[in-house]
Prior knowledge:
Layout: E1 7-8, H1 16-25, H2 30-36, E2 40-41, E3 46-49, E4 62-65, E5 70-73, E6 77-81, E7 86-89, E8 92-95, E9 100-105, H3 118-128, H4 136-147, E10 152-158, E11 169-172, E12 182-183, E13 189-190, E14 199-200, E15 205-210, E16 218-219, E17 225-226, E18 237-238, E19 242-245, E20 248-251, E21 255-259, E22 264-268, E23 270-273, E24 284-286, E25 289-292, E26 301-304, E27 308-310, E28 314-315, E29 318-321, E30 325-332, E31 339-342, E32 346-352, E33 355-358, E34 362-375, E35 378-381, E36 386-394, E37 397-403, E38 411-415, H5 419-446, H6 448-452, H7 454-460, H8 466-496, E39 503-510, E40 515-518, E41 521-524, E42 529-530, E43 533-538, E44 543-546
Parallel strand pairs: 18-22, 23-25, 24-26, 25-27, 26-29, 27-30, 28-30, 29-31, 30-32, 31-33, 32-34, 33-34, 34-35, 34-36, 35-37, 36-37, 36-38, 37-39, 38-40
Antiparallel strand pairs: 1-3, 2-6, 3-5, 4-5, 6-7, 8-9, 9-10, 11-15, 12-13, 14-21, 15-20, 16-17, 19-20, 21-22, 39-42, 39-43, 40-41, 43-44
Helix pairs in contact: 1-2, 5-8
Amino acid sequence: MGIKDAVFLFNKQISPRRLIKQILSDPKNQSYYKEIAQNFFFSDEAIIQGNEIESFFSGIDIYYNASIGALCVNRTGFVEFNGAKIDILDPIVTLKKDLYAYLILPPLDSKDPGYLVIDNILKIIKDKKILNYTSTENIQKALNFAVKGYGITILLAKGVEPVSGREAEIKLFFGLSAKAGKLKDDGSIDFKEREKFINVKAGEQIGEYIEGRKPVKGYDVFGNEIEPPIEPHTGYKVGKNLKIEGSKVLAAIDGIVELDEFNKVSINNIIKIDKDIDLSTGNIKSESSILVNGKINPGFLVETEADLIVEESIFNASIKVGGNCRVKHGISGEMQKTKIFVKKDLVAEYIENANIKCAGNIQFTNSILHSKIICGGSIKGIGKSVIIGGEIFASKGIIANEIGSKLAAPTTLIVGVDIERESKLEELKQQLLASTYKLKQVRLSIGDDYFKDPENFLRKLPDSKLDEFEKKLDQFFNLIDTQKELEESINNLKKSISFKDATIQIKIRIFDGVIIRFGSEVYQNKKEMSGPVTFYFDEQQHKILFR
Length: 547
């Protein structure tokens, strides 16, 4: 007897997978249940009868019972047959990332009453490790319903849905007095497009406050945690100098409305100067923000612990800014006389013959010419954005349309360098160099005879010179220890330096002669190249590449 003589006790033509989907979408349609009932079997029930048939079919959920000459299922479910392989589909189906578990029971009026006990269903639940399922009474009711010849689907278990978290935020009433600027797609404001600053008085309402909500974890039907989602911000975060009264957002001080890089709204008190910085104003030093509705003239000093906004230009002046610096036009002058320090971000139209240190990011629209710039973040050019001449440091990368010129003005771009870390590394190297020199000197004073045969040397050494010699030895070995410590510190610092995220991106063109550095690795561009081209440091090959 073989496969041709096998007797199938289920319907080979139907697809329980398809019927399960149909039942879940239309659980009251009895035609689906009647069809799928043909393929429903309890554990140990026979599904194919015949001798010598075990080799013709495969499936992890079936076994051959020789005593009855039949293939049997080893667990309760719906039989799925694809021509050779047999699968057993669970009557328990989970949906929506296992938040819900449903029990599907087809009509069971034709089944052997001996199988129709709730223990069969409870065993399936236990095997699937479903927690907090409905009462046995409800399961029994469903089973009784199925015994009467009706299909039924019940919600067996329900997990706990997570509660999404939401940070407190505010909706601003921009437009009360003037525009803050052009709102960009990311929700931040382009201050270059600002028509005028929004001046507010203490107690003035500037927006609406929306309370936050703490996120709560959920659990699926198996007891696994479900992390709650965080709702995206549609408004802005609460910053400095705001007062919340119910749903009202009020200015706590007189000042201007500002948005920082973290989308926080603050009121900053500001010194407003409606003229140039010149002899009539003198040098300006303040802890508050400064708005200059003119230019900063040569030789003057402006210092602020907050932000500086210059509506025109800076020429041959010294500037120290503890916050952000925005110059509507640009910065120019002589390298030794135009010194700018900015603790956060700098925005300008152009930079020419200037000496600039900026801890944050630099954004320019026109050009950077013959300047020395040390930038702790990235330098990003928009608009024309050319860089010609000078030495440009940017820890996190440089983006510009053009680099260099046909006149081959010396232009050096250095990225991926943490200036403070590089300075520390150089300091350690100098210390190691000094220590090495000192070690050589001490070794010479000790003499080679000692190192060739220390025991014999000490035996011949007069007692009167022993103390002095021991001091030299102590100094020698202390220097060795110092060297080891310095070498370890240098190696650790070198390991911490990575260039993987730093790039130089040229959108239109890079000229020959431009020098590119990633740390100590140097690349000199030999020919003019059209963009877009991106230079990066390949840590595996340990070289500068471009793509």
